């Protein structure tokens, strides 16, 4: 096998691998702890319901997240802010 063909194959494999990692990266950037902290500051205890709602925010289900937060006792405006925070990069 010629080295130029081998190099092209390695480069193509590397490109596919890195491309797959880039697609998976947004899920790793979620900030569930910050979401739960905001909910706690708004008066809700850091419960399983709050964490579950934050997970919905991470997956992009903003309305489901807000509904879950509201059921856990987080006021509407704070629930929306916490859910939007869930999908952002941790700081």
Write a structural description:
By secondary structure, the chain is mainly α. Helix content is 75%, strand content 0%. It contains 5 helices and no strands. It is elongated, with a radius of gyration of 20 Å. The protein starts with a helix and ends in a 5-residue tail after the last helix.
Radius of gyration: 20 Å
Q: How much of the sequence is in beta strands?
A: under 5%
Oligomer: single chain
Mean pLDDT: 78
Class per helix and strand makeup: mainly alpha
Number of strand elements: 0
Identify low-pLDDT runs: 20-28
- The global form is elongated
State the separation between the terminal residues, measured CA to CA: 48 Å
Total count of helical runs of at least 4 residues: 5
- Mind summarizing the main beta sheet? none
Topology (elements, then pairings):
Layout: H1 3-28, H2 32-41, H3 48-58, H4 62-71, H5 76-86
Q: Could you give a short description of this structure?
A:
With 91 residues, this protein is mostly helical.
Offer a few descriptive terms.
elongated; mainly alpha; 91 residues
């Amino acid at each position: 096998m010629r080295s130029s063909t081998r190099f092209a194959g390695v480069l193509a494999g590397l490109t596919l691998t890195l491309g797959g990692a880039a697609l998976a990266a947004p899920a790793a950037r979620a900030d569930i702890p910050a979401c739960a902290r905001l909910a706690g500051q708004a008066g809700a205890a850091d419960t399983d319901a709050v964490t579950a709602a934050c997970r919905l925010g991470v997956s992009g289900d903003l309305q489901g997240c807000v509904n879950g937060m509201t059921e856990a006792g987080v006021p509407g405006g704070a629930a929306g802010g916490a859910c939007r925070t869930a999908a952002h990069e941790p700081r």
